[in-house]
Amino acid sequence: MKNIKNILWFSLRSYKIFYALLLSILFVLAILDIFIFNCPLGADLITFMSIITTVVFIFLIIEFCNEISKGQGRLLFITPIKAWEFLSAKYILHMVVQIIIVATISFIAFIGNVKLESEIFITGLSLLGSFTVMYIIICSFIIVYGSYISNDGIVVVLVVITSIILPSAAAWIIDKVLIFLPYIYLKIGSVEIDILFSIAAITLITALMVISTKLLKLKLDIN
């Protein structure tokens, strides 16, 4: 647990200017939108939140690639850390930063008493969940392909193609398999969650995480 905290602190400290600038821009834009330009509906806040969370997602992917590279990564792994600790720290960092963004926008919407306050919060949760899953999947594929291919350009192309095709293909296969099983769902408000589909998806993501952790351990020669 101590190593995870150290990695989190290292990542935050290394890019503190970026995070501070990002939150400042987000806060100023939101305040201007509600209190200066007087947009009581709050629709622009959803746009701001979508753009900022996307920028953070891309930035953290690039940061992840740099930190497992031979140049910058070797310096990071001088300390005695384990592969799962490093990956856990990166996943937690992504979630924490995205949660702060969503919470900031939601809080501003609350104090600004905008009409789309609940929609903003729900959209934020949806973005948080989607980007978290995609972050784990993409980082895992970066490790998998990077373990066997030395050309970074080819790795990037393969990761992009796989990240686009695999989720849809996996969902299609799971749907075909679940046709033969009863439909079991959990209803939250007007939303129905397919429990068996969710379990299958979580199992696949977990398997991908385990594989990437083992490959990262071998690639960087860490425990």
TrEMBL record:
Keywords associated with the record: Membrane, Transmembrane, Transmembrane helix
Transmembrane segments: 17-37, 43-65, 91-114, 120-146, 153-175, 195-216
Keyword Metal-binding part of the UniProt annotation: no
Membrane found in the keyword field: yes
Protein name: Putative membrane protein
Organism: Clostridium bornimense
